[in-house]
Structures are given as structure tokens and as C-alpha cells.
Amino acid sequence: MSDTLLRILADKEKEVSARKEATPLEEMEARARDLGPPRDFTGALCDAVADGRIGLIAEIKRASPSGGLIRDPFDPAALARAYCDAGAACLSVLTDKPYFQGTPADLVTARAACPLPALRKDFMIDPYQVFEARAMGADCILLILAALSDAQARELEDIARSLDMSVLAEVHDQRELDRALGLNTRLIGVNNRNLRTLRTDLATAEALVPQIPADRIPVAESGLRTPDDVRRMAAVGARCILVGEHLLRQPDVTEAARAMVQAG
């Protein structure tokens, strides 16, 4: 595990502990279970692909450790509507504050602005965060295999499934892919960004996606900047993609997202 990831996870543990003090686990679970059913995140991706489109998970974030400040002014609701108008299948919303300047309010605002299902993009390490994600309206959570043991991943997935949420299991190498395939989720994200160096290489997905079984749904993440990049991922079997920074840096977000959706 990289030093950067270790630092993020140590900070996240303290953050979650503080939030548990403010709102106990039992109360957060009750809030999560009192909500209506989540939107169908996995189904939205499948529908897009069935319609001949790229299943775009369009990301909303203000900043990142690798890219610094990405978009200012930052309007989650306007971005969500722009992505929806472009034909995106789903949203991904960063809720981590120390490293991405995100907040739970960003997810709440974005999801309320459009009908798309939303992924809570954060460093999930504790069952509390799964209930918290659903309580804020998230329809899917991200499990980064590099940050979790097999037992942790299974526990968090089980809680998400009990809430009828989708799970996106993220991998970067062969070992992590093998571990992810031990989970029940159909969504397997292949991150082209090396969490140790923060560099991106589309060859990562080109090597791993063909090894993902046909009953799973590969999602290519990071480093996609052009329609040619999207076609490159589709050529190896990843017709679902997660794109953030490239779209957020464009003056016309709708047109940039539409170009991705129609690239397949």
C-alpha cells in the first residue's frame, strides 16, 4: 500500500470515529433503512450499453490530490444536470473533504438535481460509512481493494446489499482483480491510475479487462480524455467508464460528456 493511501486511510479512520461520536451507528443505520429504495445503479449502466451507448459514470469533484483544484466555481447541481442532458448513465460524487474538498452535501445536491443513480466516491473502510452513504441518498458505494482486506470488503458489500445498493469494486492489478472476483458484485472497476505514483496508463485496463468474466461488468476508470480513449477501452470489453477530471476541466461539460457517451 502506498504512503499516500496509508495517510488517507489513517485520516479517514479518525474522521469516521469523530462522526460516530456525533451520530451513533444505530441512528445512522435507522436513517439509512428508513429511506425508500435506491435507484438502480447497475441497471442504469446495463441499459446504456443495451441501447448502444457507453455507460458513462460522470464524476463530480472540486479537487483531487493529483490534479489540485479542478473546477471553480463548483456547482454540483448544475454539473449533475449537464451530465444527465449528455446521456450519462450514473453520477459519481466525491464526499471526501481533506483530499478532494468534497462533502456529503455535494452528493445530496447532485442527486436531487437529476434522476441519475449516484455513487458515493470515498474511502470506505467502516460499516458506518455504508449506512451513512445510503442515509445521504447514495445508490452505490466504492470498495477500493487496495485499501481493504478480503474480510472488510465482504462485510461492507454485505451491508450494501442488505440496503439494495450497488457496489463498485475497484482494482489496479491482477491480485486485486482475483480478490474482487470473490465478491458478489457484478461491477468491477479497473483503475488506470497507479495509487502509488498517481500516474495513469490505459494499458492497465487493456491487460485486466479481458480477464473479467462475462457475468461481470467491467468499468474503466481514470485517464480517459478523448473519444479515442473510450473506443480503446470498449475494444477490450469495457463499455462502461468512469470519467471526472477531463470532463470537469471543459468549458462545455455537456458536450464533453456527450462525446464520451457517443464514442462507442
UniProtKB/TrEMBL annotation:
First-level EC class: lyase
Taking every annotated instance into account, which residue ranges of this chain make up the domain Indole-3-glycerol phosphate synthase?
7-259
For the keyword Lipoprotein, the answer is: no
Key words, A-Z: Amino-acid biosynthesis, Aromatic amino acid biosynthesis, Decarboxylase, Lyase, Tryptophan biosynthesis
Q: What GO annotations for molecular function exist for this entry?
A: indole-3-glycerol-phosphate synthase activity; phosphoribosylanthranilate isomerase activity
* GO biological process annotation, one example: L-tryptophan biosynthetic process
**Family annotation (PROSITE patterns):** IGPS
**Membrane-spanning regions, if any?**
none
Q: What is its EC number?
A: 4.1.1.48
Q: Which reaction does it catalyse?
A: 1-(2-carboxyphenylamino)-1-deoxy-D-ribulose 5-phosphate + H(+) = (1S,2R)-1-C-(indol-3-yl)glycerol 3-phosphate + CO2 + H2O
Entry-linked NCBIfam families: PRK00278.1-2, PRK00278.1-6, PRK00278.2-4
Family statement:
Belongs to the TrpC family.
Name the HAMAP family for this protein: IGPS_B
Protein name from the UniProt record: Indole-3-glycerol phosphate synthase
Per the UniProt entry, what species is this protein from, by scientific name? Answer: Teichococcus oryzae
